[in-house]
Design brief:
By secondary structure, this protein is mostly beta strands. It contains no helices and six strands. The radius of gyration is 16 Å and the shape is elongated.
Length: 103
C-alpha cells in the first residue's frame, strides 16, 4: 500500500513523523501490545501492532510538502492505519491524504 499526504510544520522543536502500521490478531500474547475486538468470525485475542515503514522525520518549519510511504501489508493483517505523531512543541498539519494499492 502507498500512503501519500501533504504535511506542513511550524516551529517543531522535537520531531514529527508520518507512519503506516498494521494490526494483526494473534494467539501469542507475549508479542501483544493492545487488545481490540476481533474481526467477524475470529475469537477475541491479543493484537500485534507492527510499524511497517515511516517517512522522513520532520523538524523546524516548512510549507506544505508531499510525503509518500510504500509498505507491504502482511497477508494475516486484520487492520491497517496511519498516524502523524508530534514529539515536543510545535504544530503539524495534514491534508490531501491518499491510501492506494501500490502497483
Amino acid at each position: 500500500m502507498t500512503l501519500a499526504a501533504e504535511i506542513s510544520a511550524q516551529d517543531v522543536a522535537g520531531h514529527a513523523e508520518l507512519s503506516l502500521f498494521t494490526i494483526t490478531h494473534t494467539e501469542d500474547r507475549s508479542q501483544a501490545r493492545v487488545v481490540l475486538p476481533a474481526p467477524p468470525g475470529r475469537q477475541p485475542t491479543a493484537v500485534r501492532r507492527d510499524r511497517r515503514d515511516s517517512g522522513k522525520t520532520i523538524t523546524g518549519s516548512s510549507d506544505w510538502t508531499r510525503h509518500q510511504i510504500t509498505a507491504q501489508v502482511p497477508a494475516d493483517a486484520d487492520f491497517m492505519g496511519f498516524e502523524l505523531t508530534l514529539a515536543g512543541p510545535g504544530q503539524v498539519r495534514l491534508r490531501h491524504v491518499e491510501l492506494t494499492r501500490a502497483s
